[in-house]
Amino acid sequence: MKVVILGCGRVGSTIATTMAREGHDVTIVDQNPDSFRRLSADYTGKTVVGNGLDPDTLSKADIEHADAFVAVTNGDNRNIMSVQIAKVKFRVPKVVARIYDPIRASAYADLGIETLCTTCVGSGLLHDMILGRPFSDVESYCTFGMQETPSEVTNA
Question: What is the tally of helices (H) and strands (E) in the chain?
């Protein structure tokens, strides 16, 4: 599988390293060349320095041949915009954006953009750990806390 990843922070570098070790063709894009130091010493993929919203930068990452595009920068807006570019302009079959804001994640999911809200997932996992409950499947955490108001959670 050919995968292009935008953002070489902790999450992006971990995904890139793992997928490259599994034999996938991986390219990771970041504006800061120092970010690539997070990649493991055995990373065999490619790196591209540039703005992930720039079609020329994405072309350097060979997005035209990508099977998947993942946006995991620190900015929700940048992640959403880049997956829209990947999906609409470059017709990448699988695009996923990491989103921090649960309200935005829900709104974009309603528009057909696949998102993962790490705030919801992390909160749900921590909630179950605190209560000593077994973990559920990831899908059950994707909307954690969005159905109830804080007073409902407190009174539960």
Answer: 7, 6
**121, 144 contact by CB (below 8 A):** yes
- pTM for this predicted structure: 0.87
Helix (H, G, I), strand (E, B) or coil at 75: coil
User: Within a 10 A sphere around the Cβ of 82, how many other Cβ atoms?
Assistant: 28
Tokens 């990448």 sit on residue: 92
Architecture, CATH, for domain 2-99:
3-Layer(aba) Sandwich (3.40)
Residue 26's alpha-carbon distances to 5, 104, 121, 142, 145, in angstroms, are 8, 28, 25, 26, 34
Centre a 10 Å sphere on the Cβ of residue 150 and count the other Cβ atoms it contains: 8
Q: State the pLDDT at residue 147.
A: 61
Residue 71 backbone dihedrals phi, psi, to 5 degrees: -110, 115
